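Sequence in, structure out. Go.
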Amino acid sequence: MEIKINTENSLLVVPLGGVEEIGLNMTVFECAGDLIIVDAGLMFPEEDMLGVDFVIPDFSYILDNREKLRGIILTHGHEDHTGALPFLLKELKVPVYGTALTLALVREKLREHGLDDVALMPVRPRDSVTLGCFSIEFIRVTHSIVDGVGLAIKTPVGTVIHG
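Output:
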Protein backbone atom coordinates (compact mmCIF):
# COMPACT_ATOMS: atom_id res chain seq x y z
CA MET A 1 0.00 0.00 0.00
CA GLU A 2 1.44 3.34 -1.03
CA ILE A 3 0.83 6.35 1.18
CA LYS A 4 0.66 9.77 -0.48
CA ILE A 5 1.62 12.67 1.75
CA ASN A 6 1.62 16.28 0.59
CA THR A 7 5.01 17.66 1.62
CA GLU A 8 4.55 21.01 -0.15
CA ASN A 9 3.28 22.64 3.07
CA SER A 10 4.54 20.16 5.64
CA LEU A 11 7.70 18.45 6.80
CA LEU A 12 7.94 14.68 6.74
CA VAL A 13 10.50 13.14 9.12
CA VAL A 14 11.17 9.45 8.46
CA PRO A 15 13.53 7.66 10.86
CA LEU A 16 14.87 4.61 9.02
CA GLY A 17 16.80 3.46 12.08
CA GLY A 18 18.28 4.59 15.36
CA VAL A 19 15.00 4.84 17.26
CA GLU A 20 14.99 2.79 20.49
CA GLU A 21 18.12 0.94 19.33
CA ILE A 22 21.86 1.51 19.26
CA GLY A 23 22.94 1.76 15.66
CA LEU A 24 21.28 2.17 12.27
CA ASN A 25 21.11 5.95 12.73
CA MET A 26 19.46 7.34 9.63
CA THR A 27 16.73 9.95 9.23
CA VAL A 28 15.08 11.28 6.08
CA PHE A 29 13.67 14.81 5.96
CA GLU A 30 11.27 15.63 3.13
CA CYS A 31 9.68 18.97 2.30
CA ALA A 32 8.50 20.80 -0.84
CA GLY A 33 9.58 17.99 -3.16
CA ASP A 34 13.12 17.79 -1.70
CA LEU A 35 14.65 15.10 0.47
CA ILE A 36 17.82 14.99 2.57
CA ILE A 37 19.32 12.21 4.66
CA VAL A 38 20.99 12.73 8.03
CA ASP A 39 23.49 9.94 8.75
CA ALA A 40 23.66 6.46 7.27
CA GLY A 41 24.68 4.11 10.04
CA LEU A 42 24.87 0.39 10.57
CA MET A 43 24.30 -1.82 13.58
CA PHE A 44 26.48 -4.69 14.68
CA PRO A 45 24.64 -8.00 15.01
CA GLU A 46 23.38 -9.36 18.27
CA GLU A 47 24.61 -12.75 19.44
CA ASP A 48 21.57 -14.58 18.03
CA MET A 49 22.24 -13.24 14.49
CA LEU A 50 24.60 -16.02 13.45
CA GLY A 51 26.41 -15.42 10.16
CA VAL A 52 25.45 -11.72 10.03
CA ASP A 53 28.37 -9.27 9.86
CA PHE A 54 26.30 -6.10 10.23
CA VAL A 55 22.78 -4.75 9.78
CA ILE A 56 21.94 -1.80 7.52
CA PRO A 57 18.74 0.27 7.30
CA ASP A 58 16.06 -0.46 4.71
CA PHE A 59 16.83 2.01 1.90
CA SER A 60 13.68 1.29 -0.14
CA TYR A 61 11.98 4.62 0.73
CA ILE A 62 15.07 6.53 -0.41
CA LEU A 63 15.47 4.51 -3.60
CA ASP A 64 11.78 4.97 -4.42
CA ASN A 65 12.27 8.76 -4.05
CA ARG A 66 15.80 9.10 -5.46
CA GLU A 67 14.84 11.97 -7.79
CA LYS A 68 14.05 14.13 -4.72
CA LEU A 69 17.32 13.41 -2.88
CA ARG A 70 19.57 16.50 -2.59
CA GLY A 71 22.31 15.22 -0.30
CA ILE A 72 23.47 13.24 2.72
CA ILE A 73 24.63 15.03 5.87
CA LEU A 74 26.84 13.23 8.37
CA THR A 75 26.95 14.36 12.00
CA HIS A 76 30.12 12.48 13.01
CA GLY A 77 32.37 9.56 12.12
CA HIS A 78 31.08 6.69 14.28
CA GLU A 79 30.10 3.52 12.39
CA ASP A 80 26.54 3.67 13.71
CA HIS A 81 26.24 6.97 11.75
CA THR A 82 28.39 6.27 8.66
CA GLY A 83 28.77 2.50 8.26
CA ALA A 84 25.89 1.97 5.80
CA LEU A 85 27.03 4.81 3.52
CA PRO A 86 28.91 2.62 0.99
CA PHE A 87 25.88 0.39 0.51
CA LEU A 88 23.62 3.38 -0.12
CA LEU A 89 26.10 5.12 -2.42
CA LYS A 90 26.38 2.01 -4.59
CA GLU A 91 22.74 2.75 -5.50
CA LEU A 92 22.80 6.57 -5.64
CA LYS A 93 25.05 9.40 -6.77
CA VAL A 94 24.60 12.27 -4.33
CA PRO A 95 26.93 14.65 -2.44
CA VAL A 96 27.91 13.82 1.14
CA TYR A 97 28.51 16.65 3.64
CA GLY A 98 30.55 16.31 6.80
CA THR A 99 33.42 17.70 8.80
CA ALA A 100 37.06 17.03 7.87
CA LEU A 101 37.59 14.06 10.21
CA THR A 102 34.24 12.51 9.39
CA LEU A 103 34.93 12.72 5.65
CA ALA A 104 38.48 11.36 6.09
CA LEU A 105 37.07 8.28 7.82
CA VAL A 106 34.34 7.94 5.19
CA ARG A 107 36.80 8.38 2.29
CA GLU A 108 38.75 5.29 3.38
CA LYS A 109 35.55 3.28 3.83
CA LEU A 110 34.34 4.28 0.36
CA ARG A 111 37.72 3.43 -1.18
CA GLU A 112 37.47 -0.09 0.28
CA HIS A 113 34.17 -0.45 -1.61
CA GLY A 114 35.54 0.93 -4.89
CA LEU A 115 33.62 4.21 -4.55
CA ASP A 116 36.27 6.80 -5.39
CA ASP A 117 34.02 9.21 -7.31
CA VAL A 118 31.68 10.30 -4.49
CA ALA A 119 31.42 14.08 -4.01
CA LEU A 120 32.59 14.62 -0.42
CA MET A 121 31.78 18.18 0.65
CA PRO A 122 33.69 19.42 3.71
CA VAL A 123 31.94 21.73 6.17
CA ARG A 124 32.88 23.38 9.45
CA PRO A 125 30.79 24.40 12.43
CA ARG A 126 28.83 27.59 11.65
CA ASP A 127 28.85 26.82 7.90
CA SER A 128 25.51 26.62 6.11
CA VAL A 129 24.54 24.74 2.97
CA THR A 130 21.34 24.90 0.98
CA LEU A 131 19.94 21.66 -0.44
CA GLY A 132 16.65 22.28 -2.19
CA CYS A 133 14.20 23.77 0.31
CA PHE A 134 16.53 22.94 3.23
CA SER A 135 19.13 25.28 4.69
CA ILE A 136 21.39 23.34 7.05
CA GLU A 137 23.59 25.09 9.61
CA PHE A 138 26.33 23.01 11.24
CA ILE A 139 26.62 23.45 15.03
CA ARG A 140 29.66 22.39 17.06
CA VAL A 141 28.86 19.71 19.64
CA THR A 142 30.87 17.68 22.12
CA HIS A 143 30.86 13.93 21.61
CA SER A 144 33.14 10.94 22.23
CA ILE A 145 34.63 11.45 18.75
CA VAL A 146 36.02 14.82 17.72
CA ASP A 147 34.70 16.97 14.86
CA GLY A 148 31.03 16.13 15.42
CA VAL A 149 28.22 18.54 14.59
CA GLY A 150 24.59 19.06 15.38
CA LEU A 151 22.30 20.53 12.75
CA ALA A 152 19.82 23.37 12.51
CA ILE A 153 17.69 22.29 9.55
CA LYS A 154 15.67 25.26 8.31
CA THR A 155 12.60 24.42 6.24
CA PRO A 156 9.66 26.45 4.89
CA VAL A 157 7.57 25.21 7.83
CA GLY A 158 10.08 25.70 10.65
CA THR A 159 13.48 24.78 12.00
CA VAL A 160 14.48 21.35 13.31
CA ILE A 161 17.42 20.99 15.70
CA HIS A 162 19.10 17.63 15.18
CA GLY A 163 21.49 16.94 18.04
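Check: The two ends are 33 Å apart (CA to CA). The mean pLDDT is 92.
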